[in-house]
Amino acid sequence: MSTVAPARERDTAPTPTGIRRSSRPRRHLTSLSWSSLLYVAPALAFFAVFVVYPIGISVWYSFYAYDGLTEGTPVGLDNYTAVFTDPDLRAALLHSLVLLFFYAALPVAVGLLLAGAMSRIRVYGLTLFRALLFVPQILSSVVVAVAWRNLLAEDGPVNALLRSVGLGRFTTSWLGNFDTALPSIGVVGTWVEYGLCMVLFLSGIVAIDRSTYEAARLDGAGAVREFFSITLPALRPQISIALILTVTFALRNFDLIWNTTRGGPGTSTTVPSLYVYQDAFQNRMLGRASALAIVLTVVILAVVVAVQLLLRERDGRGRGLLRRGPVRPARKVQP
Amino acid sequence: MRIARTESVTTHALLVLASVVAVFPLVSIVVSSFDGSSGGLSLDSYSTAWTQGRFGSALLSSALVSVTVVVVTVLLASLAGYALATMRVPGGKVILGLLLLGLVLPYEVTVLPLYELLAGWNLIDTYWALILPQIALSVPLGVLWMRTFFASVPQELLEAARIDGTSRFQTLRLVVLPIAGPALTTLGTVLFLFTWNEFLLALILVPDNAAVQTVPLALSFFSGAARSSDPAVTAAAAVLVALPVLLAYTVLQRRLISGLTEGAVK
């Protein structure tokens, strides 16, 4: 979980008061200040040494066959070719796609459905609901793994529930069965993420002017029309953030899978991040691990950029995935 | 506007259902952690988990690491965020771009060279191996967060301080930071949660020294070993790990959630 908070360039905007136009304070905001680097340097030093430098090294390793002990040999793009041709790694990428559905698409859909329903009524106990829905977000994934291993165990509550409603033939060891392990992990991911999506969408719904809905209703709009004409367009920024968070979570997920199935049974729940760990720290294939990590990074960045571009505000002009800005949605429902 | 009562009831019912589903797994481990071996309620699982899983020392490690990371990151982020919001920093655009990248970066791409870097400095299996990279990985969120806050401080306030003859550093210390309380609290809470819950870095950077291992790692090893033998003890261990986080959340949840959702969308 992380947030993207790019503020507007407030510092270069003219002051509204207009007092003391030529005073020193304004000048120091408009000319380059080398001493300001002293403020930025400590944070940047940490970031450079422990994040930027390691990424550079990873890029470097990705072009070598290297076991971490003996001298590496340059192999050009072989590691990258291996990432895309090795059947195990390809399967891992496919597992990620399945998890994208459970970790991102499903939570956003559930969140939108409830947000649509909530937009039409006055919600009582909003703060309490928000607090409870957010709980999965704050728990360590190891705790989540322990809890769900209990729930999904052979003699756990999920199977008990199935037996009690006469569906006993569907009981299984959910995380130990080749067919059910991956979807089961997916369900855990849905559980982790749907609350976050709903809380995000709730905050968007609350900000919508109620009179917009009233006007729409006077014009005879129904629930569905309201959702697509008012709620969905107004929630565009929240949907964008929700997708970035959930997609990133899906693609770089390691903890949850490591602590539930370790990629098993067989390789039915392996994902790229698991291979990065195993190649780097167990198989001593540091070059391939690095190439895989970089491919993963590029994919995540590409998805984030795509989501931003698709859902970006465009001053109400009708482009992009969702067609309207939140500024003038009511007009659309005029008869 | 009158909306059918049934619609309101249905929606509230859905919300209740969603909330119950959200907390059910947690409630279920709390319940099973109290399962006594003879069928009654008991705290035996907690004492067993506490002694066998070394959770006392793990909780201390986690507290030490989390507090250090939060304090140092908030300090670094305040300085950098202040400069980026109120001064023209040379290369500021590049710095911001890098930090934004840092927000979505998968840790997997940094861990392998990180291991070798820290091994070269003989820091593997020490607290430093947990603290230093965690600060670096928290810096992007911290700096961007504080920059957003400092940019929202009225320009007039900075100018007034300037006219009164304070230096830029004094302005930060005496004028801006004192009103930054809510922003600092929210950032501190978020960073605390991230650091407390971090698993992959701990797994890789302190693999063999149980004395410095944090609670998620301790729980992972413990539940891996004791999984089949006694679910109640594993559940108790998980509750022990979740407890500090739940306490912090209960106290700060309102600020945390509104800060996060607004900060994210702004």
From TrEMBL, chain B:
One GO term (biological process): transmembrane transport
Keyword Transmembrane found: yes
Domain of life: Bacteria
Protein family according to the UniProt entry: Belongs to the binding-protein-dependent transport system permease family.
Transmembrane segments: 12-34, 54-82, 94-115, 127-150, 171-196, 232-252
InterPro entries the record matches: MetI-like, MetI-like_sf
UniProt source species: Streptomyces liliiviolaceus
Segments forming domain ABC transmembrane type-1: 59-252
Family matches, as PROSITE patterns: ABC_TM1 (PS50928)
Keywords from the named record: Cell membrane, Membrane, Transmembrane, Transmembrane helix, Transport
Membrane topology: Multi-pass membrane protein
UniProt name for this protein: Carbohydrate ABC transporter permease
Subcellular localization(s) per the UniProt record: Cell membrane
CC annotations in GO: plasma membrane
